[in-house]
């Protein structure tokens, strides 16, 4: 080790070349390193969400949750899973075992097992599987409040979601408090008794015409509610639906026994922003996108977007703010450290020594910036904390080494 350092002492030009090269490589690294809020981490957790509007919690448990859990029980590599069943929704959280040699193979088995689960044929969408990782965390959250009715918020939120998902750096937009449209059919039980019809007869009329439907709860003694998906939004066509006809040319239409209205799904959660009911939009970026330019583009979009007079947009969360603060702390700590080192060492030691010690800060940071993209890492909140700590160590060690060198020189030792 001593011979290694002696080589640079006897030939300082090599050290200067390496120092200059590190600075140049650091400048190159700045243009290639990825800037993100968190390091890319997979938590080896998956969440399986399945929705079936109109199903009770018991129906969800028996016909969806239990069916999926039966498939999960046969997969090795799962540490545990837990589930919750509520009206219209099944959620299963799956945690994989630690230190798996092939995590991807276990996840592939899970996907295939869920595909083969015997779920209700009336399911509107297949189970949605979310692989929980740091890239699924929202980078920007926007709230929509105001309006005379929920419909004002809904249609504007729908428009915003469609526009945001066209952004090349946006993966998807998650929403809270957002309820889809649906057509509600309010059956008049008294009229049904007059025509000698049952609820199952009405359901059969829909099923025969390939319309997916599920019975809802009894809303009052005189009405019963059936919920349809929003794609069947043609009220006229539904009113003209033939429920029963006979040889006497007596035809009973849906309008004779029910009232068809446009509405929204029953809320499972209630969202309030600053005490007002509203909708939250969580913007999730693509894994390859950088947070700072993405958030900048989002803010520019929100500043120029047309907002109805009765609605207001409220920024709720901006994760780029925390990253920007860390970056400013890094820059300010580096500059202050260089200035203090130069001033203190110039006063108590020598100016040329102070220059080289202060130069150690940008050289070390340049080396980090060059190595981060090579190792597949990014500048994020965690790595910035590490860089800030390293700057402190470099300043401390640089002062100690410089003081020792000056003492040897003042004692009459040769520079080499």
Give a topology summary:
Blueprint: H1 2-10, H2 12-32, E1 34-35, E2 42-51, H3 57-72, E3 78-86, E4 89-96, H4 103-115, E5 128-133, E6 140-146, H5 150-164, E7 170-176, E8 181-188, H6 189-194, H7 199-208, E9 214-215, E10 223-229, H8 235-239, E11 242-245, E12 251-253, H9 254-257, E13 258-264, E14 272-273, E15 276-285, H10 291-304, E16 311-318, H11 319-348, H12 351-374, E17 378-379, H13 381-410
Parallel strand pairs: 1-17
Antiparallel strand pairs: 2-4, 2-5, 3-4, 6-15, 6-16, 7-15, 8-10, 8-13, 9-10, 11-12, 14-15
Helix pairs in contact: 1-2, 2-12, 11-12, 11-13, 12-13
List keywords for this structure.
single chain; about 425 residues; alpha+beta; five-stranded antiparallel beta sheet; four-stranded antiparallel beta sheet; 17 strands
Structural class, judged by helices and strands?
A: alpha+beta
- Termini distance? 16 Å
H-E order: HHEEHEEHEEHEEHHEEHEEHEEEHEHHEH
Number of alpha- plus pi-helical segments: 13
The percent of residues in helical segments reads 40-55%
CA-atom Rg in angstroms: 32 Å
Poorly predicted runs are: 229-233
Sheet of most strands:
5 strands, antiparallel
**How confident overall, as mean pLDDT?**
80
Which of globular, elongated, flat, extended, rod-shaped describes the shape?
A: elongated
Number of DSSP strand runs: 17
Beta content: 15-25%
Task: Characterize this entry briefly.
This protein is α+β, with helices and mostly antiparallel strands and 416 residues long. Helices cover 47% and strands 25% of the residues.
